[in-house]
Structures are given as structure tokens and as C-alpha cells.
Amino acid sequence: MSTIPANESTIEWKNWNAEIPATLMFVVQDGKILLIEKLTGIGQGKINGPGGKIDPGENALQAIVRECQEELHITPHSPVKMGELHFAMSDIPDIHCHVFMSNTFDGEPTSTREANPLWTALDAIPYDKMWEDDRHWLPQMLDGQLFNGRFEFDGEKVVWMEVCFGDSAKALWIENA
Ligand SMILES: CNc1ncnc2c1ncn2[C@@H]1O[C@H](COP(=O)(O)OP(=O)(O)OP(=O)(O)O)[C@@H](O)[C@H]1O
């Protein structure tokens, strides 16, 4: 488990509930990861995986497939859930995010109103252009580890975090999609 800094979180995580359920997808193929430049919504201008909010009546798996279709015109095959992320934000609603991986997909990644596709070498992921939390779980996820992350943000800065990996992380998931 990794934590920063040593101080306590101001969040009472036991009773914490995010307003926004969301998803992320990381497609990995031939030593490359399919990232996006996000053109709209939360994190506009950042590099991230495709993803977005879970609509009412959807589960996380249905939502991530739909978001990949909408944002990049691709349909990932057999998404595997790798982690959950809990973001307590200071200036936007709190987010609970389900993170998936896939190795194959139908379609050709295509620029849309919401995103530009960016095939990126696995050893050149631009963490400086991504949300600050990503560097604390994406490398381990790409090594095949399940994870659970709690992050407290002040604006775009992480002020507290706790990230667990492996089977003990999965035991912390709120939902097993
Ligand atoms: C704070 N640290 C963070 N680190 C990594 N990823 C983060 C994130 N905070 C939000 N995200 C992701 O950003 C997307 C927002 O989704 P967002 O574009 O707002 O939703 P959606 O595509 O449904 O758009 P609409 O607002 O309905 O148009 C969604 O994948 C969500 O998981």
C-alpha cells in the first residue's frame, strides 16, 4: 500500500459516496496503449483513457463499451475490470471510477468531438499531461495488478492518497462488474 503524505485525510472515507459513477478503459496492444486527448467534459485538455459517466440504468461494463464507441468509434472485446478509483474533489463533484483493460477491439480509433486517439509506447506514457493520480496506479495496472485507489484532491493536486494492489485491493471494491 502506498500513501502520501503522512497526514490524515480530511475525508471520512467510511461514509463517503461519490456523486458521479464513471469508467475508464485502457486498450493495450503490441507494446502500445491507446490513450486519448480529452476534448470535452471533466479533465478537458488532459491525456487519459477513453471513458465517462455511467448513465442511469447502465452497469460499468455497458458504460465503458458505449463510451469507447462514442469517443473513439471502437468496441473493446471482453473488458477486464482492473481497479476502482475514488476521487474526493474540492471543486467538482466526487467521482467513483471503474477501470478496465482490453487487448483487442473492433473498429479503427477515430477522432471525434470528444477525443483524439493517441497510440502511445508503454515506456512513453505522458504522466505530466495526465491527472496526477494516474502515475500511482497505471504502471502497476499495466504490470497486471488489480488496484483500489482513494485520492483527495485540492483542485488538480493530490493532497492525500491510499492505493492498494492485488487481491486485498479487489476486496475493497464497491462493485464487482
Ligand atoms: C481526478 N482524477 C482523475 N483521474 C483519472 N481519470 C479521471 C479523474 N477524474 C475524472 N476522470 C475520468 O474522466 C472522465 C470524465 O468523464 P466525462 O467526460 O465528464 O463524462 P462523459 O464522457 O460522460 O461526458 P458528459 O459530461 O456526459 O458529456 C471519466 O472517464 C473519469 O473516470
From TrEMBL:
MF GO annotations: 8-oxo-7,8-dihydroguanosine triphosphate pyrophosphatase activity; dATP diphosphatase activity; metal ion binding
EC number: 3.6.1.56
Protein name: Oxidized purine nucleoside triphosphate hydrolase
Database matches in Pfam families: NUDIX (PF00293)
Gene Ontology CC terms, in alphabetical order: cytoplasm
Description of how the protein assembles with itself and partners: Monomer.
Catalytic reaction list: 2-oxo-ATP + H2O = 2-oxo-AMP + diphosphate + H(+); 8-oxo-dGTP + H2O = 8-oxo-dGMP + diphosphate + H(+); N(6)-methyl-dATP + H2O = N(6)-methyl-dAMP + diphosphate + H(+); 2-oxo-dATP + H2O = 2-oxo-dAMP + diphosphate + H(+)
InterPro entries (alphabetical): 8ODP, NUDIX_hydrolase-like_dom_sf, NUDIX_hydrolase_dom
Domain Nudix hydrolase residue range list: 18-147
The keyword Ribonucleoprotein is annotated on this UniProt entry: no
Keywords: Hydrolase, Magnesium, Metal-binding
GO biological process, one term: DNA protection
Source lineage: Bacteria, Pseudomonadati, Verrucomicrobiota, Verrucomicrobiia, Verrucomicrobiales
Source superkingdom: Bacteria
Similarity comment: Belongs to the Nudix hydrolase family.
Needed cofactors: Mg(2+)
Described function: Oxidized purine nucleoside triphosphate hydrolase which is a prominent sanitizer of the oxidized nucleotide pool. Catalyzes the hydrolysis of 2-oxo-dATP (2-hydroxy-dATP) into 2-oxo-dAMP. Also has a significant hydrolase activity toward 2-oxo-ATP, 8-oxo-dGTP and 8-oxo-dATP. Through the hydrolysis of oxidized purine nucleoside triphosphates, prevents their incorporation into DNA and the subsequent transversions A:T to C:G and G:C to T:A. Also catalyzes the hydrolysis of methylated purine nucleoside triphosphate preventing their integration into DNA.
